Amino acid sequence: MGTITKALNLLNFFSPSHPEIGLTEFRTLSGQDKATVHRHLIELASNGFLEQNPVTKGYRLGPAILRLAAVRERLFPARSLVAPLVERLATDLGELVHVSLREGDHLSPLCHHDALIHGTRVYFDEAELLPLHATASGLAMLAFGPDHLMSDLLADPLEASTQYTITDPDELKRTVERVQVEGVAFIDQGFELHVSSFGVPVFGDLKEAVGTMAVAVPTARMTDELKRKIPVALIEAATEVTEELGGTVPPHLRRIWLNAA
Amino acid sequence: MGTITKALNLLNFFSPSHPEIGLTEFRTLSGQDKATVHRHLIELASNGFLEQNPVTKGYRLGPAILRLAAVRERLFPARSLVAPLVERLATDLGELVHVSLREGDHLSPLCHHDALIHGTRVYFDEAELLPLHATASGLAMLAFGPDHLMSDLLADPLEASTQYTITDPDELKRTVERVQVEGVAFIDQGFELHVSSFGVPVFGDLKEAVGTMAVAVPTARMTDELKRKIPVALIEAATEVTEELGGTVPPHLRRIWLNAA
DNA sequence: CACAAAGGGTTCAAATAATGAACCAGAGGT
DNA sequence: ACCTCTGGTTCATTATTTGAACCCTTTGTG
User: Fold this and answer.
1) What distance lies between CA A157 and its chain's CA centroid?
2) pLDDT at B206
3) DSSP class of A73
């Protein structure tokens, strides 16, 4: 692992529930030497990717990230285009909807919305990267994203997030093949206990899926009616998202989706 | 300069007018060896900070930046809080207003708004870092930000953006001292020709200024009336911005501002 | 009040990882 | 068929990163 990766990984430890991190905590989180972490933090901070709270000495994400995000949004305004569609679908279904983009061999949440009309709801952390083999989004990406994802993923043993996570390579392959045929992925409690979800791919200017759209529902609330409604609604919404991103749904998937609707 | 800084600097070459950059172009922009640049690009991409267009082979900013920006906004929602205030002031004055945050020894635009009611207008690039000695924002930051900024800045010769840029250290010191007394910075064509601007500091949870708010006006349109109106309006708006950021204006500056209004 | 504990930060020899000149490969262009 | 411009790779050399040990300050405690 190169120096750059080590440093950038430090940024991944931040999350809404973990906004400020101190040197010692970084050391335990990253497992690297204190001096190493410190120099990385200093360098990230001097580039504006972090800033230090002079009172607590803790580090938090810096303004450079906002600046770059503004540039990225300007030339590829995914978030602002997609957010309204996510919100509408979440309101229609009354459940949590999220769109994520592929980031290497994970999925990175782009935006999400929860209707908040129920007492129980799915917790969704926008800072957390989603694994490909444990989430419905991930299966959709494996099924319709770049081919190398599956082989890269199987290079290491599959990590179990819950007791229901698919960890057998052959089972994963079979599941992904079924997703390719059905056009929609479904996973029951593969990533979080008591959460079931549907996922479909969304496409950018390439042939392969660039991201996914998914609905996550507390398993207790997943009725047969929802199981019928969600895939149909997802397919429709994902088609719109794909259009907003300036992409096209591949013809063979479009046929599958038409039959499903 | 460490490896991390070299890699992160590559990200700074992106701008709305320059959304995708190839290997060779990166080489000339950064002045580093092709192999070095390439390895850095690969590593940035594998962390999601860049993504490669498989058709053109060019690189563009990646989804990781959006994810981190979402986290940062969640716990320090500067942009979403400040944007409405910027928009209101821009509409009131009919001129371009921007808020920037300090990023090392530069200012990083956070958000801006232009009333767009005039034929001529100031061009403002959100991707461009603002120098401290050439902009009104920068003077405000030098005057009310951390003390070390001035000495760090004077370590190297001052670069001239235009023929009017202050490049003499003593003149800069005198100018900044005047800003500290008056509470508002003014610069005439110091950064861009035919653009004059006023700047004031905004404060976060620290004693020192964390950013600035500024109004930029085409010099030809800078009437005496505007020169009276802008500082008063800026002071009022910057006070609000400071409150939104959870900060407080230092007492001595508050007194100066009260007299000015 | 002394003292321990814990967090942030620094040092410098040792070792690892970054570097860059040279090289390869493919896509246009002439 | 040849040139050239692009992206990408190799490997010995070199310089940068590394980490155990150390220092400083704050905080809590007998």
Assistant:
1) 21
2) 67
3) H
